[in-house]
Amino acid sequence: MNDPLVGAVVAGKYHVIELVARGGMGRIYRAEQAPLGREVALKILTRPAMGTALDDVALEKRFLLEAATCARLRHPNTVTVFDYGSIDVAGEQTFYMVMEFVRGRTISQAMRSEGPLSAARTVRVAHEICRSLREAHRAGIVHRDLKPSNVMLAQTEEGEAVKVLDFGVAKVMAEGAESLTTDGSFVGSPRYTAPEQVRQEQIDGRADLYALGVMMFEMLSGAPPFSSSEPVRTLLMHLNDPVPALHAPEGVPSQLEALLRRLLEKDPRARYADADAVILALRATRLLPVSDLPEATVDLPLEDESATDEKPQAAARTWSPSDMAPSPVDTRLPTSPTVLASPEITRSLANAGVRLGPTPPVAPPAAPATGRWLALGAGAGVFLFFALALIVLGIWWYSTSGDMVATQPPPEVPVDEALRVMADGVAAPKPAVPATASTLRVTTIPEGASVYLDGKLVGPSPVELGYDPARPSQLEVRQPGYRVRTLSLDGPDDDGALAVELEKIPRSARPSTPPVGGSGDDIRLER
Fold first, then answer.
1. Would you please indicate which residues are annotated as catalytic (active-site) residues?
2. pLDDT tens string 150-208
3. Residue 30 pairs with which residues in a beta bridge?
4. Which of 3, 222, 285, 364 is the most exposed place for a label (fewest CB within 10 A)?
């Protein structure tokens, strides 16, 4: 089939090479950006294959919202958005988005080729997905359509890299944001939809954590926990059916099974509070290689300190598979497609007795008198602990921020943790920009290294910083697993840009990852 865009130049700078994939909301092309010669993925908006209640204006808003929100995400585990806008194709206005081109296979393709994943590989992939979700949730973005076909496994020089794709149906949770779905619509993939999403209640990041639990169940066992040939039946299973027993070919430590079942709780309040909590729980399983852990989290308190990373120790079982009645799973079905604005599904759910729309919050049961006193005591202890932590942090900050005190070497801060706001509300301080500052954009190889100016953390690369060219300054670039680079800034930079390549510290051994492969999922590949 002849595609009018193949061979064309979009927006005056993107030369379209070939069509590589089709999805429910658009087509993906491989293109080359001029004059950089950079290989990019060009997404062109098309109308959903399924029926939709969205008019042209709402469809335009949905796409532009996708592009604008994705452009705010910078985490290495999230596909980077470079550009977006509108173009004219065959006399009809449509919209495009330019993203980094990821070479690899989806989780679905990997499972079709290799079968279920090992427990260690599942934990590592879930850990990287959570790091992507953490940044999005902090920005007020819920993915809402997380599934195996939206996660890529790319092969790099560092091993297997995880990339989360397609925030195309993401919902911005900012207060006062306009809803782009009409009343009586449904957005999501039935097999990976959280119960509160089925009921069309207001959702938050815990809906994505539920979808992650479904994905982990499928990665370990080879099939999702809830599946039916009828989408409405699948949705009702999420609402009413207990989680079936997990049958993994290689076995799963009980600590990991307990984590998985907490992610799959029907009530979002019973799940982990956020992606940070899931990250810590995944690291506590000891199934992640030490080389993949930030230095600050390697020595986690565990029940058995003698356990090794090669042979994890299982925690005491807190549940029994015999207590969970298994539900039927049809492994022959393909991954369920994204359903956009389908009133038929809404009517079917209503006919099945499902209450749709926001529901009033359920008040927790009243605690007994002794419980209230214990709760008050625990609360007072937590308050005193954080107050003391703030005082100690203030003393440390004062002792290290003055010019009359010798600057100590900065601590090794992991890239993904440098973005994290501490529990007491104190963020990593940024150096003040002098009035006569010069601006310098610092990029690093690899990207995402921590950049320090005069001993103070500026942020992960790429990052822009201000410095006084009249006063010599010291720039340090740090990345776990690489040697520290120190440079002197003793004058204005004519280009306003600095590229720093880090030298990798040799390792005696690195964990090997089997290659991934397979056929397409719910996208259709064309060559």
1. 145
2. 899 998 888 899 999 877 555 544 333 444 444 445 566 899 999 999 998 888 999 99
3. 18, 41
4. 364
